[in-house]
Each structure stands twice: as structure tokens, then as C-alpha cells.
Amino acid sequence: MIIGAGMCGLYQLYKLLRNGADVTVLERGDDVGGTWYWNRYPGCRFDSESYTYGYSFSKELLAEWDWTEHFSPQPENLRYVNHVVDKFELRTHIQFGCNLTRAVWDDEHHIWTLELADGRTLTCRFLLTAIGLLSAPTMPRLTGMDSFRGPSFHTYHWPKAPVDLTGKRVAVIGTGATGVQLIGAIADKVGQLTVFQRRPNWCAPLHNAPISAAEMASIRADYAEIFRKCDNTPGGFIHGPDRRRVAEVPREERLAFWERLYATPGFAIWLGNFRDVLMDEAANAEFSAFVADKIRGRVKDPVLAEKLIPKDHGFGVQRVPMETRYYEAYNRPNVHLVSIGETPIERITPTGIRTSERDYEFDLIVYATGFDAVTGAFDGIDFVGTDGQRLRDNWRDGPLTYLGLQVVGFPNLFMLAGPQSASLSTNFPRGIETVVDWASGLFEHAVERGIRRIEPTAEAQAEWTAHVEELYQGLLLRKAKSWFTGYNSNVEGHDKIRYMIYNGGAPRYRQRLAEVAQQGYAGFRLG
Ligand code: NAP
């Protein structure tokens, strides 16, 4: 049984069907697509180059699918997922509207029993989670949220039916990657837009553009090389770090390099920078100052520009939101910024938002307030393992895993995009293809040998969890207040660091997985 019909669950379904397994996907939504099914807010699109995001497993699929933009928008992404599902006839193996509430391991029969919200009970031998890393949206805990008379929703729940924004007074709370995409996209479509910003982020231009037919032909001819490049970078993107340090490069040369990065589409500015920008305070400060000047150059009001420049963390320490006309939006007379660090929100009122300074009236309030990332989706399911232990109790102070794939006490439960795996810190489809291919190999190995129970050893789990923690120490992101460190101010207890992602890079992770398999699945007890 696979939980979740997003990019990860669908690929695992495809692989297992090809291997002759008896497999079903349970999906809580009423259609496929995961992230691309739920997030329908204006401006939602890839931050990965489209042609690095598509599946790489089928030459036929690569040959027939045309991406129309370098950073494809949500509707096209959802069409792509549906195309894959139809092409490989996956739909009949998926059950929709299945909200898994509880999963209980039976250590005598080696079976998971799944309880669904609709009262059904199902059983399976192997339980594979593909439940997403950003799939448990979180709302602020503000007084009066239910009292607002107009529509209000989290970006993750942006309605399927078109939302008419014309002439509307709209509030957006939150300026992460989601808020930044949304604000840039709707600034010229609404009547008045008021952005409630707690802490600004370092944003950089996406430089999206259409893909012409000729360009698509050349991308198609180049797919092998594109995927080879992605395989060899830490993040699974076409952008890899410049191995030089900032101080090694003469000032004029490094400024010219940074100008080029600022003009380059996508994550080059974050992932293709000098390697110490994300590791060394001084290098980071110098590059942050460069980007701060860019913001000052784009926002006409100097006081406003300062409010949009982060002062509490450096560039790239948190996930860099990629933007399209984001800073220019603030030059429009209908766009206003409220720094809630200075004038906190006191409550939501029936007609809008009250800060410590004044009342604001709105027709629509949008919460772009992020997710209980990575572990939130797991905490939403009551996983009960051996001896009645609960996953959410075991992970209270942070996840404990072996390879980000399995947890001691929860045999036959495989997390295909689990905490402490590389998929979370990688261009997602590139990361999950690695894990799914590897896991599929393990299942074949298990079937061939009649293995009915797979669980990591306590030693292997302790070693991996310590390794993941250690990898944080060399990076400035260890100081971030962001989902990379498990921070979420809206969830009780999530205000301290949790080691959520594997920072060793995709090639190193892939190599480790290969070694584990070569050593007869070292660290796993196969019984
Ligand atoms: P996020 O990065 O966690 O940002 C949430 C925003 O809401 C932050 O500005 C946060 O402020 C603010 N916020 C949260 N609670 C608040 C409260 N109680 N009061 C006021 N403000 C509050 O979430 P996100 O923007 O949804 O992005 C999450 C992740 O999704 C991204 O990092 C990225 O990995 C992914 N994403 C990807 C894409 C893409 O690839 N195209 C697009 C969008 C998102 P603080 O900073 O002060 O906490």
C-alpha cells in the first residue's frame, strides 16, 4: 500500500506494478497530483527548471511532453501528472478520498492494518508513505479567525473555482516562497493588496520565460546531459556550487560573477554561488550586502526597501523564494506593507485585521503561513509500531531514522520522502527517483528470499541520525528559523531545532544507498 498520489507515490506505483507487485495507492484528495493538486494559488509554479523536474524514467514520456515555460505553472504541472497517470494506466490502482488516520503493526502476522476516516479497515504487508514534505498547512493562532465575514483560506486550500480578485481588498499574511509568488502575481489584479510581513526573506528573480518549439527540441536532444548534470550536483539541479571561496576571487571579478548570477534564471544564485556563501559568516555577509543593494535598487521608497531586507539572517540560510516582479509590486500605489514585527496583529475582526496600530478592512484574507513541514504529515497519522509505541511520541524531539527511510519499531514502514532523506533537500523528482528505485530493489530482494519483515537496527538508526545532525554543523542554515530546522511558530513545541533534512548532497546519499544494498542491506534486519 502506498499513501499519496503525488509525484513520489505515482512513480513508486509505476515501479511496483512493473515488478508484478499487488499494490494500491490511497490518496486523500479526489485526484492525483499531490502538491500540484492542492496548491492552486495564483503564481504557483516550479522553482526548478521544468525539464529538470519531469520524470526521467521513460524516454517515451520525455519525447512526447512539451514544457511551455522554463518554470512551469501549476495548471500545466497538474496536466503533466495526469498525463503520466493516463499514459501508464495508473488510475485504476488508486483509491481517492482515503484519509488514513491510523496504521497499526501486527508483529505476529507481519501486517499493517490501516484505518481510514470513512471507517474502512485495510491490511497490507508493506506500507510506503509518499505523503509529501509540505502537505500539512498551518494557520496562525490568532484570536477571531473564525469571525471574519469574507472568504479566508490558506494558500494550500486556494479554491478550485476561480476567485475573482478584481477590485477586492486583499490581505496576504506571510512572505515565504508561497507568499512571494502570490504577491507578485496578484498585485496588478486586485483593488488593494496589504501584505503582513513578520520577517522578510531574501528573494531573487526567477527570470521565467516561455520555451519556444526550437528550444524544446534542443532540450529534448539534451535530456541525457541535463539529467547527468542533475545527478552530479548536491541539490539535483543543473546548478552546482562554484568550488572557489569568495576571498579567493578578486573583488571586481566576484562582483561581475554575482551580477551574472542575479541575471541567471532559477536557483543559480543560491546553489551555484561560491561554496562558502552558505557556510562562512563573512562570505555570506558580503553576498547579502550585494543582494540588499539590488533590493534597494528595485524598491523606490527607501524606508520600505529597508523593511524588505532581512536583518536577522543572511542570504540563502533559509530557502530562497524565487520571485517575479515581487519587489516592483511594492512600487504600486495599491500595494501596502505592514511590518508586523513593528505593529503586531492583535486579532482578526469580522471585517478585517487589527494590528497594534489600527484596523484594516478586507474582502479576502489569504494565509500564506507555511507548513508543519516534513513531520507534520506523519504526525497527522497515528502510526503504532511494535509494543504499542507511537511514531509521533518517538519523534517528539525530532525525527530518528535510518537513511530517512525507516524507523526502529516500525517494521515494513518505508518513508519514500521521509525526514533525514536527501529527497527533501533535492530537486524533488530527482531525489525521489533515487529512493523509489532503491526501495524497489529492496522489495524485489525481499520477495525473492521470502522476507516478510524489514526493520533497521538501533545502531544503524543512531549512526544515521547523528550523521544528519553533524552535517548541519558546517552550514549557516543550522541557525535558520525555517522548515529546514523544523521551526514553525504555529505548532506547539516546534520552536527548537530539529534535524529534518540530509545535507550531504544527493550524490553522497545515492552512494550510501548503493553501498548499503551491496552489503546485503547493511543496517536492516531482514527476517
Ligand atoms: P514558509 O516559507 O514557512 O513561509 C511562511 C510565511 O508565513 C513566513 O513569512 C512566516 O513568517 C509567515 N508566518 C507564519 N506564521 C505566521 C504568523 N503566525 N503570523 C505572521 N506570519 C506568519 O512557507 P511557504 O511560503 O508556504 O513555503 C514553504 C516551502 O514550500 C518553501 O520553503 C518551499 O520549499 C516550498 N515552496 C516551493 C515553491 C516552488 O518550488 N515553486 C513555491 C512555494 C513554496 P516568519 O518567516 O517570520 O516565520
Briefly, what is this?
The protein starts with a strand and ends with a strand. It has helices at 7-18, 35-38, 50-53, 59-64, 74-87, 177-186, 213-221, 223-232, 251-263, 268-271, 281-298, 302-308, 326-329, 376-379, 391-394, 428-448, 458-473, 506-518, and strands spanning 2-3, 25-26, 94-95, 100-106, 111-116, 121-124, 127-129, 152-154, 169-173, 192-197, 204-205, 322-323, 335-339, 345-349, 352-355, 359-361, 364-367, 382-384, 413-415, 454-456, 524-526.
What does this structure look like?
33% of the residues lie in helices and 15% in strands. The protein has helices spanning 7-18, 35-38, 50-53, 59-64, 74-87, 177-186, 213-221, 223-232, 251-263, 268-271, 281-298, 302-308, 326-329, 376-379, 391-394, 428-448, 458-473, 506-518; strands at 2-3, 25-26, 94-95, 100-106, 111-116, 121-124, 127-129, 152-154, 169-173, 192-197, 204-205, 322-323, 335-339, 345-349, 352-355, 359-361, 364-367, 382-384, 413-415, 454-456, 524-526. Strand 14 (345-349) and strand 15 (352-355) form a beta hairpin. Helix 1 (7-18) packs parallel to helix 16 (428-448). The radius of gyration is 23 Å and the shape is globular. 47% of the residues are buried. Bound molecules: NADP nicotinamide-adenine-dinucleotide phosphate. Residues 45-47, 134, 140, 173-179, 181, 198-199, 319, 340, 368-371, 483, 489-490 line the site of NADP nicotinamide-adenine-dinucleotide phosphate. Residues 45-47, 134, 140, 173-179, 181, 198-199, 319, 340, 368-371, 483, 489-490 line the site of NADP nicotinamide-adenine-dinucleotide phosphate (NAP).
